[in-house]
Specification:
heterodimer; A: 679 residues; Rossmann fold; 4 domains; five-stranded parallel β-sheet; B: 171 residues; four-stranded parallel β-sheet; 4 strands
Chain lengths: 679, 171
């Protein structure tokens, strides 16, 4: 609890508390401009001030030792330090007075450096301003009450949302640190986008082999629980005890199903196979991909007609067509978001996509090159393969406002998708290896093979004869039907490296190296109140110093929900998120400032204005007593409810009306008369 | 006589001392504007010493009564600064500030207080230069307006303790 007792009302203690004022010279930073001795002398005349003096460096070890000594020796009950900005040393001095046995919130920090000595030129004016601020702090200090940091215990458990490679790595790492982990995936199978790849740059590993190994590592951890077909539908609570409601879609199949192949063969319903980016069709009861996990098939309820033919084909066991979704609630200490990305889906007609069957996305090409893919790894039925191939880079990435068509959010995708350059070159090399006769032209803005061992793909592609044409993003390439009928299509572009010469490349196949957009998690964003960047990806607290934490305490970021990443980076981010989450859990509790609001029930009229202004839904209505109540755990201490209350029934600890008004009063009080000059 | 106090009479009653300096109170949110004021200091920008800063956690905490209290207690001007819309550390505390402050300005205008005495601006943590320029501008405009001297006016109108709100007109 922040403070026992009622809402922080005013009353000053009957005797003014004993206040010590320490004015820092900051080695001349302050004292060169401000007459610190005069500031201390004027502060000494404030009620309750028993000590006011200037010291060279209050933040130094001797300076802090002095504060401790004076607190003990003079029985100080409040401490005021006038020094640099509180952003620098407020915490330092709170710890100091805590060591001396005084409650750390009986402390006032006055900023006489950044906001006085460094900005005011005139020494007299600076001294008077410093004096006003110090005296105001002394007046405010008299109104302070002891407060305790809020300590919220953390359950040693984590919810990982997203069962792709980042979510799997985060879940595995957390489990290996002893946390109970629940991994939820809203599709029926784990693996995410990585499962749709074939071989990976820069190692050449098979994507699904790597993934299968990772899935085995993760699911064999005894503390990991996997929920597939699970949708987050609600959340309550805060760090330490997030209560998440999940809707579990039934799989429709259980372990008693002995011959899943028979059931799939018997199913009469077919639908587009999203796993192959609509290049193939699948049944309503299906496996997402060979070797998928969980190994049981799942029923796609949107296409299933519940005809029962699958059930008949397997002897009536192992399939339940009547199962209904159910809801569960999970309690976890922390949350890791690993919701991933979607490949950019080109608009109809963008570079001929959807109009010409010869225009594919890079993702579709990768599916076609996959021996386990829809065409068994063959691009053309005659075995000769494509004659001429044009790759177009930066489709749905690095777009130009006014040139490209904005998305539904009204913005063009200006950011680089980072993975498609190397991915496209990797696919081009794969094509060259399979079909050495293929002639490949690559239309690019810039080749950004930025990662370790990625540049080699560019060099190898050039060695193998891939032609590179640098196009102007303001005049992107055009894909048209070839009027001379030499090949189905022709790509025309201005080549920037020959001064804008118009080039044309006949093409049997056009591959669009499409960008990366965040997976649609708008519901999660509003549930967790996540910050979102201009590019619509989730925004970390600080890109350099706190790269995997969300501003919402206890929520961490793993992988492509934060921005385009390759698998290497996504795994690194996931491991980092797991480490940060585990470090938070290892503390056993989170500490938060006690500046929460509290309602004085005797003044509350029950108008509920405060309920409408709280950004955190921390204010609730006590129906029985017809008053508002602030949850200390949810309150973040902004004080907005305080300012909105028409009855002045709400006060914020640390920023009560009395405290703020005492500051106003003293700042505006007549300034002290000059000290009489000693005779 | 006190009922209608024309400006000329007012200045005659209370001649402005040559040494008069405007007193301005600024309420700043901690996360953006206060840090922006620190940024001005770190950059060693110089601005007038007339603005005294009071720190709150969020501009949403700035009760209109704090503004009127400062004026009623002798401030010649009041500044309110918070994070730009979209930057609020508390998601949307500044949305409430955005809604409230125009009402405060209107209420003060109805009380006859010159509009230049109350300034509401967004200052981000990086906008030290904006903060310094703002202090400079507000100090100059309040200096031009002269002393508000609300406590004395209230005393003269028989309001005990100089408190309370009574309309009169400032040019």
């Amino acid at each position: 609890m922040v403070h026992p007792g009622p809402a922080p009302a005013d009353p000053l203690p009957p005797h003014p508390p004993r206040i010590g004022v320490f004015v820092c010279r900051c080695g001349g930073n302050i004292s060169d401009v401000v007459d610190v001795e005069r500031v201390a002398a004027e502060a000494a005349r404030m009620p309750g001030v028993v000590l006011a003096a200037a010291y060279p460096f209050v933040c130094s070890d001797p300076g802090q030792a002095l504060i401790e000594e004076k607190i003990r020796g003079l029985a100080l009950e409040r401490v005021v330090v006038a020094a640099c900005s509180p952003t620098l040393h407020q915490t330092t001095f709170r710890r100091t007075i805590d060591r001396a046995g005084l409650n750390q919130y009986l402390f006032e920090h006055v900023n006489v450096r950044e906001q006085v000595s460094w900005v005011v030129e005139d020494e007299e004016a600076a001294t008077r301003k410093a004096s006003r601020l110090v005296r105001a702090a002394a007046a405010r200090a008299a109104h302070l009450v002891p407060l305790d940091k809020r300590r919220i215990p953390i359950q040693p458990s984590a919810l990982v949302i997203g069962g792709g490679v980042a979510g799997l790595v985060a879940a595995r790492d957390l489990a290996r640190r002893g946390m109970k982990v629940t991994l939820v995936e809203n599709r029926p199978f784990l693996g995410g986008r990585m499962a749709q790849l074939h071989t990976l740059f820069p190692t050449g590993d098979n994507a699904r082999d790597l993934l299968a190994a990772l899935i085995q590592e993760t699911v064999r951890e005894p503390r990991v629980r996997i929920l597939t077909g699970a949708h987050v539908i609600g959340t309550e609570g805060v760090v330490g005890d997030f209560r998440t409601r999940l809707r579990l879609e039934p799989r429709g199949v259980d372990e008693h199903l002995t011959y899943p192949g028979n059931a799939i063969a018997a199913c009469p319903e077919e639908t587009i196979n999203e796993f192959d980016f609509a290049l193939s069709r699948r049944k309503a009861i299906y496996h997402a991909y060979p070797g998928c996990y969980p190994p049981m098939p799942a029923i796609d309820w949107r296409s299933c007609t519940r005809c029962g033919k699958c059930l008949a084909a397997v002897g009536g066991k192992g399939i339940d067509l009547k199962s209904e979704p159910r809801e569960i609630e999970l309690h976890t200490g922390v949350i890791v978001l690993a919701t991933g990305y979607d490949p950019y889906e080109p608009l109809y007609g963008e570079y001929g996509y959807g109009i010409f069957p010869q225009v594919l996305t890079l993702q579709q090409l990768i599916r076609l090159l996959d021996p386990e893919g829809p065409s068994g790894g063959h691009l053309a039925g005659n075995g000769k393969g494509p004659g001429r191939v044009a790759f177009i880079h930066c489709v749905g990435a690095r777009q130009v406002d006014g040139v490209n068509v904005p998305g539904p959010d009204g913005k063009v995708k200006e950011y680089c998708a980072r993975t498609c350059c190397t991915g496209a070159l990797h696919a081009a090399l794969e094509l060259k290896a399979r079909y050495p006769e293929a002639r490949i032209t690559s239309f690019y803005q810039d080749i950004r093979t930025y990662g370790r061992f990625h540049e080699e793909y560019y060099e190898r592609a050039a060695e193998k004869g891939v032609l590179f044409v640098k196009y102007d993003p303001k005049h992107p390439p055009r894909v048209e039907r070839d009027s001379r009928d030499q090949s189905p299509l022709v790509v025309r572009a201005k080549d920037m490296l020959t001064g804008g010469l118009e080039l044309e490349a006949p093409a049997d196949l056009v591959v669009l190296a499409t960008g990366v957009v965040p997976h649609d998690i708008s519901e999660l964003i509003s549930m967790y109140r996540c910050a979102v960047g201009y590019d619509s990806f989730l925004l970390e607290v600080h890109p350099k110093l706190r790269p995997v934490e969300l501003a919402v305490s206890g929520v961490f970021l793993a992988g492509c929900c934060q921005g385009p990443m390759d698998i290497t980076e996504a795994c690194a981010a996931a491991s980092a998120a797991a480490s940060k989450a585990a470090a938070m859990i290892a503390q056993g509790r989170v500490e938060m400032d006690p500046f929460v609001s509290r309602v004085d029930e005797s003044l509350c009229t029950g108008c509920q204005t405060c309920l409408t202004v709280c950004p955190y839904e921390a204010v609730t209505r006590d129906q029985a007593r017809r008053v508002s109540r602030v949850s200390e755990a949810l309150c973040t201490g902004c004080g907005t409810c305080v300012a909105s209350c028409p009855s002045n029934a709400i006060q914020q600890f640390g920023f009560t009306d009395a405290q703020v008004i005492s500051e106003v009063d003293t700042l505006l009080a007549p300034e002290p008369a000059p000290e009489p000059v000693p005779a | 006589m006190a009922e209608a106090m024309p400006h000329a009479a007012l200045t005659k009653d209370a001649p402005v001392a040559a040494a008069w300096e405007p007193r301005i109170v600024a309420f700043l949110c901690y996360w953006c504007s206060y840090t922006g004021a620190d940024a001005a200091g770190t950059a060693r920008l110089k601005y007038p010493p007339n603005v005294d800063v009071i720190r709150v956690m969020c501009s949403g905490r700035i009760d209109p009564e704090l503004v009127t209290a400062a004026l009623a207690k002798g401030a010649d001007g009041v500044m309110v600064c918070g994070c730009h819309i979209g930057d609020c550390h508390y998601i949307a505390g500044n949305h409430k500030t955005m809604a409230r402050m125009p009402l405060v300005a209107r209420a003060l205008a109805q009380l006859g207080i010159a509009p230049g005495r109350f300034v509401h601006e967004w200052v981000s943590a990086a906008e030290g230069d904006k903060f310094a320029a703002l202090v400079d501008r507000v100090t100059r405009q309040v200096r031009r307006l002269g002393p508000l001297d609300w406590p004395r006016r209230m005393r003269e109108r028989g309001v005990p303790g100089g408190r309370g709100l009574s309309p009169w007109s400032e040019p």
